[in-house]
Amino acid sequence: MIRPLEKLIAVKSRAFKVMFIVALVCCAAAASAADWQWPTEMTVAGLKIMEIRGTTNNDGSGTGSGKLMVPGAPGQKISLKRSSRGEITGSSSIKLRMSGAEVDGDFILNNSGLKGRGTAKFSPRSVEDCSMTISPDGLVKGTGKVSLGNCAAAANFSVSKRDADLNGSTSARAQA
């Protein structure tokens, strides 16, 4: 004996069968998005996030918070967002000290890494208006400007657990 659903599918055209299967797949995908919950830990772009708490919406999107484990500054607070497509992003204000340098900035975390803007302080100079990245192993690399009297020199820098490096150059003219 043919069950009623199978009988309905057997009677309808091939186009109906395809539409029916597509509808089933869409319903299953929507159900799995609605069932998604924030885990207590996750890794994004190689960086671990712990103690996550959050809420989700019916479409699978949501917001949360946790602690970003950045080498040299573990436990930084991070605000998290999840899109309905499952993409996780986060934002965090990070301040860390390593190898005699201090990095302070606002960072965005996504699948391509941890990128931000801020300052890097090296004794006796600071690099201002920095664009920087922090890798999963804690290496901070960036570019910015160093003020030298009335001049601003372009500078590159890196900071790791082992050392800090600052270099740059600018042109100067002597006035008579």
Largest sheet: 11 strands, antiparallel
Uncertain spans: 27-31
β-strand number: 11
By DSSP (H or I, 4+ residues per run), the number of helices equals 2
Number of domains: 2
Query: What is the C-alpha radius of gyration, as a whole number of Å?
Result: 26 Å
Task: Quickly give the structural class.
Answer: alpha+beta
The backbone outline, from C-alpha atoms, is elongated
Strand order, biggest sheet? 1-2-3-4-5-6-7-8-9-10-11
Percentage of residues assigned to helices: 10-25%
Mean pLDDT: 85
Strand content: over 45%
Description:
- The chain has 176 residues and is an alpha+beta fold.
- It has two domains: 4-34, no CATH class; 42-169.
- Helices cover 16% and strands 55% of the residues.
- The protein contains two helices and eleven strands; from the N terminus they run H-H-E-E-E-E-E-E-E-E-E-E-E.
- It has helices at residues 4-11, 14-34; strands at 42-44, 47-56, 62-70, 73-82, 88-98, 101-110, 113-122, 125-134, 140-148, 151-159, 164-169.
- The protein has an eleven-stranded antiparallel sheet, with no helix packed on it.
- A hairpin with a 4-residue loop joins strand 10 (151-159) and strand 11 (164-169).
- The N and C termini lie far apart (105 Å).
- The relative contact order is 0.11.
Give the arrangement of secondary structure elements.
Blueprint: H1 4-11, H2 14-34, E1 42-44, E2 47-56, E3 62-70, E4 73-82, E5 88-98, E6 101-110, E7 113-122, E8 125-134, E9 140-148, E10 151-159, E11 164-169
Antiparallel strand pairs: 1-2, 2-3, 3-4, 4-5, 5-6, 6-7, 7-8, 8-9, 9-10, 10-11
